[in-house]
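Exercise: predict the structure of this protein bound to magnesium ion.
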Amino acid sequence: MIRLEKIQRRYVSDEVETTALRDIDLHVDAGEFVAIMGPSGCGKSTLLNTLGTVDRPNAGRYLFGDRDLAALDEKALAKFRAATLGFIFQSFNLIDELTIEENVALGLAYRSDAGDRRARVAAAVDKVGIAHRARHYPHQLSGGQQQRAAIARAIVGDPKLILADEPTGNLDTANGEQVLDILTGLNAEGATIIMVTHSPSHADVAKRRIDMLDGRIVASAARAI
Ligand SMILES: Nc1ncnc2c1ncn2[C@@H]1O[C@H](COP(=O)(O)OP(=O)(O)OP(=O)(O)O)[C@@H](O)[C@H]1O
Ligand SMILES: [Mg+2]
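Solution:
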């Protein structure tokens, strides 16, 4: 499904150049659940943002299915993201002024083909177990509930690929496990998941683990069953 070839990403600021990604080659098949690990600053978020097309590489190729994403302009990429991807972040990134169901509905923005939006939002909040909080505002929810709302927003459009950057990073053990259970369930239903985590036990939930160091992938191993 995904093929990265020799991806490079450099940041230049105040004459300091940082190479965040060096020669990244990566294949991910449909249906995989991949965990990405590595020390702070090794390029995990940059890789995830590159996969999400919100960060563009300086060199290399990104093929998604049979599409070369480098050939798409910003408008086409926005459409691709809306139809194909779901993002989950460490800090939830909910909008404080909107209710949970309004936040979740944002996951259907840029989608003209969404059908019955209300029904889809209701199904998504129900799936993550926060239907009873749908009319509340983010600050009225616990951290775990807020992250589940963010997952509902990510999945309301039925994405093929879910990209999660430390989704359990701000949660206690119980809430973190709940989030992992939801992700595991989504993977079992067919979603491909790529998740950055600092927790080896959380990485063990994935079917494959990739280790990064200094902008490179240094190991990739399937989980022993
Ligand atoms: N916008 C930016 N401008 C300049 N340098 C950046 C920028 N974003 C990231 N970097 C640098 O690129 C490198 C990789 O950063 P990245 O955020 O991908 O690391 P990470 O592995 O996600 O770290 P963490 O575990 O702390 O989240 C770091 O050296 C970082 O300082
Ligand atoms: Mg990061």
